[in-house]
Specification:
This protein is of the alpha+beta class and 181 residues long. Helices cover 41% and strands 20% of the residues.
């Protein structure tokens, strides 16, 4: 498959992921995530403006990267993206790269990120009563345990240092035990 065919397919279908090295079009599995700083917007999609984009980003196109072309509203987007097999990893990478969404290849749909997820986690940690386990009231214990599990699951999405940098030092000891330091 050629670049020109990829552009035509994108125009017909509203988008495409194309591997320049192998000529593969639209993986069937995994999640497409854009590389940070590699996105370009255009009012039109032509072979020549796509070729110009590819030439401007040539060093980023490796055997494992894809040229992403898709239309959102009246604008076309071009990017360099990678296919990540695991959704949790894809969402983490997308968030670090400042992306709004990842593309689910199997289900042919975008999965939008919650841009406030880290802020919500930090807020939950700050408001959590880490001493809930000392309560004799089973309702307090149950709520505290549920929030604790939610925090632990949320922490899996962020490196320890990133979380600690966003928390007051008085809460560091609680978080470090969750991370198992």
């Amino acid at each position: 498959m050629s670049l020109q065919h990829a552009v035509i397919t994108a125009e017909q279908n509203g988008g495409v992921s194309y591997n320049l090295h192998h000529g593969h079009l639209n993986p069937d599995t995994g999640y497409m995530v854009s590389l940070a700083g590699r996105e370009r917007v255009s009012d039109t999609l032509t072979y020549h403006n796509v070729l110009g984009y590819v030439n401007d980003n040539l060093e980023a196109f490796e055997t494992t990267t894809f040229l992403g072309l898709w239309k959102e509203g009246d604008v076309w987007f071009m990017d360099v993206s990678v296919c990540i097999p695991n959704l949790a990893t894809a969402l983490r990478v997308a968030e670090v790269n400042g992306q709004r969404a990842v593309y689910d290849n199997a289900n042919k749909k975008s999965i939008y990120l919650n841009p406030n997820r880290m802020e919500e986690l930090i807020k939950t940690i700050k408001e959590h009563d880490f001493w809930y386990m000392m309560s004799d009231d089973p309702r307090v214990f149950g709520r505290g345990q549920a929030v604790q599990e939610s925090i632990e699951n949320g922490l899996k999405n962020y490196p320890k240092e990133e979380v600690l940098n966003n928390l007051p030092e008085s809460l560091h000891s609680f978080i470090e035990t969750i991370y198992g330091s």
